[in-house]
Design brief:
This protein has one domain. Helix content is 76%, strand content 0%. It contains six helices and no strands. Helix 2 runs antiparallel to helix 3. Keywords: Membrane, Transmembrane, Transmembrane helix.
Length: 157
């Protein structure tokens, strides 16, 4: 069980899942409307929060979230099945990559004990925020290159 404090859900989980949703929608070339993005991101964060409360293996919440995001892309955003699968899976892989790089780098820079991240909420929330910014930046740059014609309209990457 990998429990997340409620305050972390608000300041870490929801922003991260909104950013991930933006990136997945961008990769899948799905039409974005902010109310829909915020709703999906919030639902994903709450789902992660609830699954982490259960006695399930670490990482199961990620698999569940990939499936949920895929379903949101297909049924709510009316996305193509293959591209929606790619968008949800690739979005999470990018998130995991950014998380590994950002967290390990910031822990070393600020000399923070990894156990502190589990017990002290302020460092925990702050250490995980750069990846949220990187997710939004990646989505922005991907969309910018798509509009300039560097990436085809229906190509993923």
């Amino acid at each position: 069980m990998n429990s997340m404090p409620f305050i972390s859900l608000i300041f870490q989980g929801i922003p991260e899942q909104i950013a991930l949703t933006v990136l997945a929608f961008t990769i899948a070339n799905a039409k974005m409307k902010w109310p829909k993005i915020v709703t999906i991101g919030t639902c994903l964060a709450i789902a992660a929060y609830l699954v982490r409360k259960l006695p399930v293996p670490f990482g199961l919440h990620t698999i569940i979230l990939i499936i949920l995001l895929f379903l949101f892309l297909v049924f709510w955003a009316k996305g193509d099945i293959a591209i929606s699968f790619l968008g949800s899976t690739l979005g999470f892989l990018i998130l995991i990559g950014y998380e590994l790089v950002c967290v390990s780098t910031l822990i070393k820079i600020f000399n923070i004990d990894p156990d502190t991240l589990m017990t002290n909420l302020i460092p925990r929330i702050l250490i995980f925020e750069p990846q949220v910014i990187l997710l939004f930046l990646t989505a922005f740059l991907l969309e910018k290159y798509r509009k300039r014609g560097f990436i085809g309209k229906h190509e993923s990457f």
